[in-house]
Design goal:
The complex is a heterodimer of chains A (282) and B (299). Chain A is mostly helical and 282 residues long. Chain A is built from 14 helices and no strands. Chain B has helices at residues 2-15, 18-47, 64-70, 73-104, 111-123, 126-137, 143-147, 162-187, 191-199, 204-232, 236-241, 253-262, 267-295; strands at residues 50-51, 59-60. In chain B, α12 runs antiparallel to α13 (267-295). The chains are: A mainly alpha (282), B mainly alpha (299). At the A-B interface, α1, α4, α5, α6 and α10 of A face α2, α4, α5, α6 and α7 of B.
Chain lengths: 282, 299
């Protein structure tokens, strides 16, 4: 009797837990579902109240219109170029430095590593103004250089990969050395291939944050054709005067969210692992 | 020829040493970090000591920018907004994920699906979140009006509510990140400990408060530090949803910095704001680090 009662309570608890979790998940995803549905509605239906959930009629005009109104294909292209090159560069630069910090012995190693670590703690807004003037001196404003090059550096990648490389057995390097590999060969042929999960973590992180980046591309681009997706859409959003074309904005939002969700679902495992690795640094 | 061989030998000998390779490996990262991060940080401080409108040459102004800031009412108003936003987002941004993480930790079916759905807002561009939420908040036809039984709330246009609206979006967006970390923390607590405490008669809330929570403090500490730092960085949300309005009620430090630098062209003042932000963050992080001994397990 007692046990049955307890089991009953347990079952109620689990059901309640499920209910709360489902409610939470619903409020997380609802804005996206709403956005997707709205992007297929007519302006008339969008502004009707009480709100209608399903598009009726189902139209694709919002998508057609944004392709005519704004260079969204170019924005998409710019964002892709910036994110891909930032990711590639960040992985190469960080992994090289991380390899030296994790596997090689040299003077001032700890001191230099500390400089890298310290840069993580400084808010990015502190250096954004001088960085802007630096870009102007280099004549990089409104070019891909300004959008990509400063994004290649930062302590986070070095830190993350150093943790990873340190966890590999030292015998790997020694075996490679006996086989006549110099450190460059060891790095490229031995360490990198066995570290693919760690590299994937950094790559996904960099890709997503580069794709989503807003303040920097806003500051260093002037011409419409150099804008990245978030900045282009923000300008488009700000251009409405009388009535906002919500359907078209939603269509833009849908287009810009697809690649990150795709990359995330592809590498979800690594992404979550990366977050946990970051939290276990103490 | 002899000399050439001499250099070749020297180079060969150098190539045997770690230090030679080490510098080759760290040089790209080090140069980039010095040029694009360290140098701008130092330059920022020097600019903060000048008066500069981008057109004429910068004039040295000593600590004038700092004095002007610290004696103006506007600064304290913005500072108050920033702290209000940061503290509320940090507290809510820990409580909600903690609650959900505890529920998810019960080894329920479909846990991964939940985890993924909680995580999706975190990886989406803020512009997407801003558009979706602005439409949800719409006082005329927004879905929130419908959910709240046709109550008209001017979410983004009322100076008393706008900040709350920003906080809601921000907590919604970052919930997944903290959830993953807290869940990892919970999963590292061995099930035996909970079993033992149950035998000792600690069930439910009691078990959570006296057993689970103390064991989770290292994860909570990490989440606290990260969330605090990130909440002082907020820019995109303000820029996209309220532009600091209405009546400056959502004006926070970073947005103010941006306006001063790139709209009012007071670059010296903007740099001073940046440094004050830096100092505030440093002090807070340092204090959190110091006080951790008082409540974090094994510290």
């Amino acid at each position: 009797m007692e046990i049955q009662k307890k089991m009953g309570i347990e079952r109620v608890k689990i059901t309640a837990g499920y209910f709360i979790l489902a409610l939470g998940a619903f409020s997380m995803l609802f804005p996206f579902v709403w956005m997707l549905l709205t992007s297929f509605m007519t302006q008339e239906q969008i502004f009707s109240y009480p709100p209608v959930l399903l598009p009726e009629p189902f139209i694709v005009d919002n998508y057609k219109n944004i392709f005519e109104k704004i260079p969204i294909v170019k924005y998409f292209f710019n964002s892709t170029v910036v994110s891909v090159f930032t990711t590639l560069g960040q992985v190469i630069v960080s992994s090289m430095a991380a390899y030296a910090f994790a596997r090689l012995e040299f003077k001032y190693r700890e001191l230099i590593f500390f400089v890298f670590l310290a840069t993580i703690m400084v808010p990015p807004q502190v250096n954004i103004i001088p960085l802007f003037f630096l870009m102007r001196e280099f004549y990089w404003i409104d070019t891909f250089y300004a959008l990509i090059v400063p994004g290649l550096f930062g302590g986070f990648g070095v830190f993350l990969l150093r943790q990873w490389f340190k966890s590999l057995p030292k015998s790997l390097d020694e075996a490679a050395k006996i086989d006549g590999c110099n450190p460059l060969q060891t790095y490229w042929y031995i360490i990198m291939p066995v570290s693919l999960p760690g590299i994937a973590t950094l790559a996904i992180f960099t890709f997503v944050s580069s794709w989503n980046s807003f303040m920097w591309p806003l500051i260093v681009t002037n011409s419409d054709l150099m804008r990245t997706l978030p900045v282009g859409i923000a300008v488009f959003k700000g251009s409405f005067r009388e009535t906002t074309e919500w359907g078209q904005l939603m269509a833009c939002a849908v287009i810009s969210v697809i690649p990150v969700i795709f990359v995330f679902l592809l590498g979800q495992k690594y992404f979550i692992k990366g977050i946990m690795m970051g939290s276990a640094k103490e | 020829m002899n000399q050439f061989n001499y250099f070749k030998n020297k180079l060969n000998r150098l190539a045997q040493k770690d230090i030679f390779w080490a510098w080759i490996f760290i040089l790209p990262a080090l140069l980039g970090t010095l040029i694009f991060i360290v140098f701008p940080i130092l330059a920022s401080f020097i600019i903060s000591l000048t008066q500069w409108n981008l057109i004429s040459a910068p004039k040295f102004a000593g600590l004038n920018n700092y004095i002007e800031l610290l004696t103006s009412n506007e600064f304290y108003f913005v500072l108050f907004n920033t702290f209000y936003y940061a503290i509320t987002t940090t507290v809510l941004g820990i409580i909600f994920p903690l609650f959900l993480a505890v529920l998810l930790n019960k080894n329920i079916k479909g846990g991964n699906i939940f985890k993924t759905s909680y995580f999706i807002p975190f990886i989406t561009p803020l512009i997407v979140a801003a558009i979706a939420w602005e439409w949800i908040f719409d006082p005329n036809t927004g879905i929130l009006k419908w959910i709240f039984f046709n109550t008209r709330i001017e979410w983004l246009y009322d100076k008393n509510i706008a900040m709350l609206a920003i906080i809601i979006v921000s907590v919604w967006k970052n919930l997944g990140y903290n959830l993953v970390i807290l869940l990892a923390g919970l999963q590292s607590i061995s099930p035996g400990i909970n079993e033992a405490s149950k035998i000792d008669g600690a069930w439910g809330i009691k078990n959570f408060v006296y057993i689970t929570l103390p064991l989770l403090t290292p994860s909570i500490f990490f989440v606290l530090v990260m969330t605090t730092i990130l909440s002082f960085h907020v820019f995109d949300l303000i820029y996209l949803m309220t532009q600091g309005g209405p009546e400056n009620s959502t004006m926070i430090l970073v947005y103010w910095l941006y306006k001063n630098a790139f709209e009012y062209f007071k670059v010296g003042k903007a740099s001073a704001i940046a440094y004050i932000l830096f100092i505030i963050l440093f002090v807070i992080t340092f204090a959190q680090w110091k006080f951790r001994k008082k409540w974090v397990l094994n510290e």
